[in-house]
Amino acid sequence: TWFGLMREGDVHARVVLRGKGEYAIRVKAAGDQAGPEAPKMAIRWNGADLKVVEVPERRREARLHEVRIQADRGTHKIAVAYLNNYVNPKEKDPRKRDRNLLLEFIEIEGPLQPVPQSLPETHQRIFFTQPSTKKPAAAAREIIGKFAFNAWRRPVERAELDRLMKLFELGQAQNDSFEKSVKLALQAAMVSPHFLFRGELQPEPDNPKQTHLVNEFALASRLSYFLWSTMPDAELLKLAGAGRLRRNLAGQVERMLKDPKRDALLQNFFTQWLQTRSLQIAAPDVTTFPAFSPELRRDMARETELFVDAIIRENRSLLDLLDADFSYLNGRLAKHYGLEGVEGDEFRRVSFKDGTRGGILTQGAVLTITSNPTRTSPVKRGKWVLENLLAAPPPPPPPNVPELKIDKEHPLTGTLRERMEQHRANPGCASCHDRMDAIGFAFENYDAIGAWRTQEGGASIDASGELMAGVSFNGPAELKKLLVNQNRDDFIRCVVEKTLTYALGRGIEHFDRCAVNAICVKLSQDNYRFSTLIQEIVKSAPFQKRRGEGSAPVAP
């Protein structure tokens, strides 16, 4: 069976290699010959050309092309591309009117000469020395000491290491192997509170009126778990050991935000703050919304991930979270949004012009999690904005307000907006809903799974509203502009408080107000850049210092 490339482009696939070594890529190709030159073919590996050749042979003389590569274990992309299409419908000989590249098969074989690996890399990193070069106890002490230093994220006291060595000696006394004896000590290091908890020693742990700088190793852990959700790497620990981390924090933050491990900040902070992790359990009614599928669910989540990663990676303004002129879409999600010009499964950056898309408020993930299974929910959408973007959650319902009784003789009728207005006629309901509903109705043009619509139940949608300050708007684009311009300070303060809460692992207290205010001022002076947010949090007193945890009251 032959596969024909009738225009310039490629065929590609993901391949998973089980081992490191040399591999052979083979392509059997021929061509439909037309024009002044033969078809040109490129064999590509992970996007790079390995070999570019002309293919003058016709199908019956098809030739096998081979290229050898050194490749690592893991997932790679292999592709064969057609580079020089030619079409001339005026050619007299119909066989010479169209040049095409024909492929019979593509195969990869290997590893031809696997790289020998006696032990896994992780094993070699732990057992970096062996008793063959020194006495067993000395080798074990080096291994256990280095492991405990990394696991506990700080220097190990001599007495602590002596206790771990007792376990090694116990294994040796039982005639266990060297590695099994060491393993016993390593297990003890990992069940220790020093590994399981981030202990931060301070001179006055029971005095809440006193604050003290955390030591450099504790600072390294705070920084690493904030940005990477894992223990400090060798560079952070080296700087901490030399007492130079605090004076080099800015450079380390910049380095860490460029590292792929920054993805942990996206997965563990942003999805928690924006509540998009709940998209995995959202359950739109499949009868009402048959377009919703597991694939669309994944696409929605991926759009938000790529969008937020661009904010981090490109050091963009935090205001872009509210109203950006771009997002990341693939063909399926673009079709769902009613947008043309995007095809295929690969996500790409797409620019917007009219304001109906752009920013997290108009992304399918947020619009879906703030809806009910069968319809939109202006209440949930408005409440989500107030809580997560403006740090102004609506008050709880007043006590002793009964459930809204259903009047069978005079049921609520009309569009959702009209039914909600009838609902708010009840004074007990209005006190909770006035603030939420006005914001939520701005997004009524998006259905419960984020698709654009102009009508509901045959009636035109009214997406107008008025904020509590008396400022009116009509539709999502105008509301986003209002949030960016008139509610900017509220939004920035909300972002600072949410991020600082995550960085500290505790809620914001009254004694943190000065730090929050200072960070907001610095952000306003630097166009609200994402890196400024992180740098200022890391430099702040709440991040650098620790307060005693006694029961004595603390003055504001």
- Determine the N-to-C terminus distance: 79 Å
Spatial extent as radius of gyration: 31 Å
How many domains, in number, for the residues?
A: 4
Low-confidence parts, pLDDT < 50 over ≥5 residues?
A: none
What share of residues is helical?
A: 25-40%
Structural shape: flat
**Strand-pairing-aware structural class:** alpha+beta
Number of extended strands: 17
What can be said about the biggest beta sheet?
5 strands, antiparallel
Per DSSP, what share of the residues sits in E-state strands of 2 or more residues?
Answer: 15-25%
Count of DSSP-assigned helices:
20
Mean pLDDT across all amino acids: 90
Can you offer a commentary on this structure?
By secondary structure, the chain is α+β, with helices and mostly antiparallel strands. The chain has 4 domains: 107 residues, Jelly Rolls, CATH 2.60.120.260; 76 residues, no CATH class; 209 residues, no CATH class; 60 residues. Helices cover 39% and strands 17% of the residues. The strands form 6 sheets. Strands 1, 3, 6, 8 and 9 form a 5-stranded antiparallel beta sheet that branches. A hairpin with a 5-residue loop joins strand 15 and strand 16. Helix 2 runs parallel beside helix 4, helix 6 packs antiparallel against helix 7 and helix 18 packs antiparallel against helix 19. The chain starts with a strand and ends in a 9-residue tail after the last strand. The mean pLDDT is 90.
